[in-house]
Amino acid sequence: MPELPEVETIRRGLVEKVIGRTIERVEIRSNRIVLYPKPNQLQEALRHQTIRQISRRGKFLVLDVGDYHLLIHLGMTGQLTYWAQSQEDDNLFFRHPRTGLQKARQHRVDKHTHISLYFTNGEALHYRDIRQFGRWRLYRPEELAMAPEFVKLGPEPFTADYTWKRFLEAFKGRKLRIKSLLLDQRFVAGVGNIYADEALFDSRIHPERKAESLSNDEKRRLFRAIPRVLKRGLKYGGTSFQDYINAEGLAGTNQERLHVYGREGEKCLRCKLSIQRIVVSQRSSHFCPHCQPDNK
DNA sequence: AGTAATCCCTGGCAGC
DNA sequence: TGCTGCCAGGGATTAC
To answer: Which segments of chain A are extended strands (E)?
Structure first.
């Protein structure tokens, strides 16, 4: 599940590969992914455009292609990989015997590859998304700031937007559980299920605590933990728990460094007791009952 | 208005 | 072995 560190890793990989590339042809094989405008209009609009810059806001990638800004959300299983004919090597390509996932630098078009951008130099950018929760949207540059999915986003971690004052403000009158608040992109942009669990463990807060019940000290710990766990994820190239791979088709290694996520029944790295898994607002939540007591 | 539940989708997997 | 049913989850939508 691509969250901020995964999307940022993909962005950095793409910057190395596709800046300056001109789109010759767009192939769309699924009608589910392109939300706006109509698929054939997007196809036409992107033709002959040159990729100038790639930025990120929360979990959204923004491809500046000149006349348009292409907004890409990877959903749950979205993958964006670069394909260069010159680098093709069959030894690097294989299908995982059980999961069928492609494990290679060079990803070929398969039944889950829903969109391909073919460049004038013969290379390509493939969008593959097994569960098809990802969405592409096209805006005029001046429309982007007012795009509905954009204006609602909360502060961007690692930037001046992320302030203690604004963080505190977001807690006022919020009776929902802290885990639910963390997953709300209006609270802090880019945090998803994995990093929410990690941040709560770092700050020693039970996922089911009511947001407004947190003490000032707990809020402070959480405020500091969020960028910390995201930075760690980024440092190790993202968390490849299921389908995430970077622009080169390679997995990250942060899954080896998670403290609680996916570690149900394993020992807490802090106190050695068993990590538990519960469901909070339809999402699995991993925590240590000893280090993160439900005390309020 | 705030919060919770539902739905989308596919592959993996437990159970029979 | 093959079938069935459930689970994973980001975010839009719907319900309360």
So the answer is: 23-28, 34-36, 53-57, 60-64, 69-73, 78-83, 113-119, 124-129, 135-139, 276-280, 283-287
A281 touches strand C (CB under 7 A): no
Provide the whole-model pTM: 0.93
| Helix axes of A4-18 and A216-235: crossing angle, nearest 10 degrees | 30
**A141 beta carbon < 7 A from strand B?**
no
pLDDT in tens, A30-76: 989 999 899 999 999 999 999 999 999 999 999 999 999 999 999 99
* A117 close to A134: Cβ distance less than 8 angstroms: no
A133 CB-to-strand B distance under 7 Å: yes
**How far is Cα A223 from Cα A166, in angstroms, rounded to an integer?**
10
Report the C-alpha gap between A282 and A175 in whole angstroms: 17
**Residue A258, number of CB atoms within 10 A of its CB:** 21
**Which run of H or E residues covers position A45?**
helix A39-46
Which residue type sits at A105? R
Q: Which residues, other chains included, contact A177 with Cβ-Cβ below 8 Å and sequence gap of 6+? A: A207, A208, A209, A210, A211, A280, A281
> CA A257 from chain center: how many Å?
18
Active-site residue A137, yes or no? no
Strand C nucleotides within a 7 Å radius of protein CB atoms: 7-12
Is-catalytic flag, A59?
yes
CB of A149 within 7 Å of some strand C atom: yes
